[in-house]
């Protein structure tokens, strides 16, 4: 097995562009790639492209009629069919939509294949993590569900246990929907409570399908306003025990940067430093509980496209590569010049929000019945832990 991690990248991914004014601005991808290079991380990873996902791969998750509808809208956006979620405010059709979406999916599937066959034990595709796309519809800025496709390909290759961990501010509804009846896949989503945020799903009581799927979905719905200490307390109160029990052969993680306090579309108050802490935790969990340490990390949401997304995902690339960037690191001036040239905004000056090291109170230190965060954690543990033979209380 190679010691070098893979960074999946193709310049053409910036063609995934819903148009001016849309929150999913592809500049966030280009700026992240430029920051990775400016920090010297290209020397720590193997940068690799992959073929766009073909129809046979897309059909592992998506219906044939939906793929045809995406192709039609891609060739002529006037043909977008809203019955498939295309041509909507969230997912406006654009020329080349199928090709750009299939390219992102191909990068995630290619990364999964490389990790499974032993080319490397870690790979990252920050252009991926499009977790809202359903088998037969686009949703939430997502056309093809690359995360689900990567997992489906792993299963096709023979994986018997794949864990999917989603820390985007939004519920990972599309991935859950695809695998909720499949006990080979454990989906864990840590997100803002569905009462206050799209897509309105991800309640603790959503624990997978009946029968064999019972306990295959885990949803940790956090109160709006949750900050660093609460977010990390919740994560560590649920995720490690589940992974220790499940012992996946591959861990797939989704790292939407939209939990950040500057994100314009959500209501959590998490810092870049706490996001980095969870990225480090994911690496540690993969090393401890995953067969061969196999880890595929994906991007996701994130709409503070200059101040937050590039720094968060550059840290993710560094952590996957084992070449961690210290939080106090100055952002290279060459990158800040690129930021200004492309956006007319000043770039951030350091790779931190000034909150490192981030501390939190462990779940084992005691449950506070008056605390809404603790209530949320207990709701999740009560809903799913017994289904997996785990104790509700520490």
Automatic annotation (TrEMBL):
Q: Which domain of life is it from?
A: Bacteria
Biochemical pathway: Ketone degradation; acetoin degradation
- Gene Ontology MF, one: histone deacetylase activity
Q: Which UniProt keywords apply?
A: Acetoin catabolism
Read off the CDD domains from this record. Answer: HDAC_AcuC_like (cd09994)
Q: Does the keyword Chloroplast apply?
A: no
Q: Where is the signal peptide?
A: none
One GO biological process term is: epigenetic regulation of gene expression
Gene3D superfamilies assigned to the protein according to its UniProt record, in alphabetical order: Histone deacetylase domain (3.40.800.20)
- Quick check: keyword Nucleus in the entry? no
Q: Which residues form the Histone deacetylase domain?
A: 22-319
Matching entries from InterPro entries are given as: AcuC, HDACs, His_deacetylse_dom, His_deacetylse_dom_sf, Ureohydrolase_dom_sf
Instruction: List the Pfam families.
Output: Hist_deacetyl
The family line of this record is: Belongs to the histone deacetylase family.
Protein's recorded name? Acetoin utilization protein AcuC
Q: Say which species the protein is native to.
A: Streptomyces fradiae ATCC 10745 = DSM 40063
Which gene name belongs to this protein? acuC
């Amino acid at each position: 097995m190679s010691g070098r991690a893979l960074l999946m990248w193709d310049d053409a991914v910036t063609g995934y562009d819903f148009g001016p004014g849309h929150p999913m601005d592809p500049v966030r991808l280009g700026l992240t790639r430029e920051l990775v290079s400016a920090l010297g991380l290209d020397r720590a990873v193997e940068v690799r492209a992959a073929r766009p996902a073909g129809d046979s791969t897309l059909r592992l998750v998506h219906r044939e009629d939906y793929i045809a509808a995406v192709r039609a809208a891609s060739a002529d956006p006037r043909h977008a069919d809203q019955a498939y979620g295309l041509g909507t405010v969230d997912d406006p059709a654009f020329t080349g939509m199928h090709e750009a979406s299939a390219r992102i999916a191909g990068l995630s599937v290619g990364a999964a294949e490389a990790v499974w066959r032993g080319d490397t034990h870690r790979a990252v595709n920050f252009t991926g993590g499009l977790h809202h796309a359903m088998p037969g519809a686009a949703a939430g800025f997502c056309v093809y569900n690359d995360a689900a496709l990567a997992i489906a390909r792993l299963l096709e290759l023979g994986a018997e246990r794949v864990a999917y961990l989603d820390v985007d501010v939004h519920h990972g509804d599309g991935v859950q929907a695809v695998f909720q009846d499949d006990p080979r896949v454990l989906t864990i989503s840590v997100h803002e409570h569905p009462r206050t945020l799209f897509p309105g799903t991800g309640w603790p009581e959503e624990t997978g399908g009946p029968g064999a799927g019972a306990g295959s979905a885990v949803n940790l719905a956090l109160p709006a306003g949750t900050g660093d200490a609460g977010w990390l307390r919740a994560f560590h109160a649920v995720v490690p025990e589940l992974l220790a029990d499940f012992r996946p052969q591959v861990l797939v993680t989704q790292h939407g940067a939209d939990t950040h306090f500057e994100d314009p579309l959500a209501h959590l108050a998490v810092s870049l430093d706490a996001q980095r802490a969870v990225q480090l935790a994911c690496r540690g969990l993969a090393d401890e509980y995953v067969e061969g340490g196999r880890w595929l990390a994906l991007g996701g949401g994130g709409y503070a496209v200059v101040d937050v997304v590039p720094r968060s995902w550059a840290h993710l690339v560094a952590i996957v590569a084992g070449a961690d960037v210290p939080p106090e690191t100055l952002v290279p001036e060459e990158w800040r010049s690129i930021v200004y040239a492309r956006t007319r905004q000043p770039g951030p000056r350091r790779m931190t929000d000034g909150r490192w090291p981030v501390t939190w109170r462990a779940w084992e230190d005691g449950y506070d019945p008056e605390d809404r965060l603790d209530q949320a954690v207990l709701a999740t543990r009560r809903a799913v832990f017994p289904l997996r033979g785990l104790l509700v209380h520490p």
